[in-house]
Fold Protein kinase domain-containing protein.
Amino acid sequence: MSKTSSDDQQRHAVYVCRQPYIVRRELGRGKTSSVFKGLDVTANYFPVAIKEFHISRHDPNAWESYANEIQLLTHLQSTNRVVRLKSYEYKPKFGRAYIVMELGTPLRRYLKEDEPIEEPYRRLFWTKMIDALASLHVTGIIHGDIKPDNFLLDAFGQLKIIDFVPPGQYGVVYRQRGTRNYLSPEVAATSKPFYTHKVDIWAMGCILYEMTYGFSPFRDIEKTIDKIDAIKNPYHQIPVSPDTDPWLLDLLTHLLDRNPITRYSIDDIQKHPYTTIRIRLNGKPNQLKAVERKKDIKGRISCSETLARRNLLLDDIKIAVIAGLSVGLLLIATVIAIIIFLLKKRLAKLNASRIGEGFTDTEETVVIDSEIGTSTVAVAASADSEL
């Protein structure tokens, strides 16, 4: 599959576990796979993401990436913090493997160069990202390539993690993985690093820095070798603004600590005041509204990015809905119980009435029968006397 100039018009179908999907356009490409926007034919053409791996016996990396991602996605489906897995299949005859997942908007789309995200929204994004990463670390899983492209915003405003790569397990030595601007010092220092969860923490610090200032900590260093040296060098100062919020600056300092031993853990981040302080947007807690993009110098306007659909409440609306449903179900159950009680009471009265009528009919029958019997005896007696 390849991207064309008219990719929205030129389509073709692929079958994953015998289910048809229409492939529309390419969304991204890596070393071992490509991601496409697709449509689920059996689900009324609902949009999905289709990840295609080119599997070759000469390149074990593709198979390793595919198998690792399937294993982790399957294991983490219950957390609701990773992208939802719909289907997957390996087709050895064609040297292809497919993963079908839910489609969303990458966080990268909301990070414009030299345009910091405003504080309420930045903090809200941050808390959601930390919740997602914590769902991995609590199970002992290392992502290994944390960056804005690998956080997905779904239709309900929830941030989810995508694109898992090795290392995966704590402390296992692999070849160097990750993206340069988010590479931790201990990974940059050697081609066969000893991974811990702290590599993800460093990358999270780089993302928070980028959301704060509008650029990554090492953006100004162009050459790759110089960038790697700067990341490893403890004497290279990462620039910060003196106007930065003190709590935010304190958190950045602990996240971008070149010593992985003293660098914050996910628990430390969750307890930090910058993460724990509850924010209010326009008088409502945890409400994501549109992040308006200003006109640039050339007068072009970037489209207004609506985060999680305008005026959509995140956690609060979920709690309200669940509470409302619970109260509603309780009321319905109460009404049904009352109706059943009244019906039983009415039926009991009807049964009692019918039983009473039955007794009256029996008594009348007995009286009539006795009268007939008495008359018969009297007639028989008179007849005998006459004889």
Notes: Residues 315-386 form the longest helix (72 residues). The radius of gyration is 36 Å.
